[in-house]
Design goal:
Layout (H helix, E strand, L loop, with lengths): L1 H12 L6 E11 L3 E6 L2 E6 L5 E4 L2 E3 L9 E7 L6 E6 L1 H12 L2 E8 L3 E6 L4 E5 L5 E4 L2 E3 L9 E8 L5 E7 L28 E12 L4 E5 L3 E5 L5 E4 L2 E3 L8 E9 L5 E10 L1
Parallel strand pairs: 4-7, 10-14, 11-14, 17-21, 18-21
Antiparallel strand pairs: 1-2, 1-6, 2-3, 4-5, 6-7, 8-9, 8-13, 9-10, 11-12, 13-14, 15-16, 15-20, 16-17, 18-19, 20-21
Length: 277
């Protein structure tokens, strides 16, 4: 567990050069479109969609399995605005999934269909591996095919993570798999359909206030998309040219925000100029 937590903090440190953040967090609130997470000491608003994967108790779960106050580990796509939640799990399940993605696993086949081979794993839980004719099947150490697999068969599977977050079955064998010590040669996905350019690291934004979350020092604006703005005790506010404060925030006001982004993708306001539209 200590190594696992160290890896998570390392991912935070290395984030500046990445588009994905893997982090422990606490769910502050849940809305129809996403979550507000506490990452470190600050809130981070993320959105989920039909592609977001939820896992709990070593099984695939539904969105409503998680609620305010839960401690979770999340995979977040940070080069989108707002940041996109790709995966959420309780801490024990995340470590279980990390082991599945990095180490060969032994289990009993419980289901086979045209896309997946599902195992009841010796380490607990069930997991579905994406399997195609590109998966190497070995029976008694000799090449085989997916047709050689059957229900209740005990096998070993070595997987790797696809850009879709499916676990692809690289090798399926009825004998233990010896893993050579080498890095994966899998190339990053070229898929990405960028809808909008990410917000630049610092500058100014304008929009209309659509939500105020004073308890966590955050408000929302509608610009070319919905953006979540974080402020703090150093943030300067004005209202129609006169000195203001965070209490001046109200839905419907126009807002011009001077900001910088932090390493988690949060938009941190240094100044907020409000006006009645």
């Amino acid at each position: 567990m200590r190594t696992f937590i160290t890896c998570i903090f390392a991912s935070l440190v290395l984030f500046a050069n990445a588009e994905t953040l893997i982090t422990e967090s606490k769910i502050i609130s849940v809305s129809e479109g996403g979550y507000i997470l506490q990452v470190g000491t600050q809130p981070l608003a993320v959105e989920d969609n039909y592609q977001t994967r939820f896992l709990k108790n070593k099984e695939a779960a539904k969105r409503d399995a998680f609620k305010s106050g839960d401690l979770v580990v999340c995979r977040i796509k940070t080069d989108a605005d707002p940041p996109q939640l790709r995966e959420m799990a309780d801490k024990a399940t995340w470590q279980w999934l990390d082991d599945i993605r990095k180490k060969p696993q032994r289990g009993t086949i419980t289901k086979i269909d045209s896309k997946y081979v599902t195992l009841k794993l010796d380490i607990g839980g069930n997991h579905s591996y994406r399997a195609t004719d590109k998966s190497d099947v070995l029976i008694g150490g000799k090449p085989g095919t997916l047709a050689d697999l059957h229900l209740d068969m005990v096998v070993f599977i070595k997987g790797r993570t696809l850009p879709t977050l499916d676990t692809f079955a690289d090798v399926i064998s009825n004998q233990a798999i010896v893993v050579a010590k080498k890095e994966s040669t899998a190339k990053p996905s070229a898929q990405k359909t960028k809808k909008m350019d990410p917000i630049v690291p610092e500058g100014m934004l304008s929009g209309t206030v659509t939500g105020v979350h004073g308890e966590i020092l955050m408000f929302d604006i509608q610009a070319d998309r919905v953006l979540h703005i974080t402020y703090n005790s150093a943030t300067k506010f004005s209202l129609d040219g006169a000195n203001g404060s965070a209490s001046s925030l109200a839905v419907g006001l126009g807002a011009r925000i001077t900001y910088k982004r932090d390493k988690t993708g949060r938009i941190i306001a240094s100044r907020v100029d409000l006006n009645k539209t």
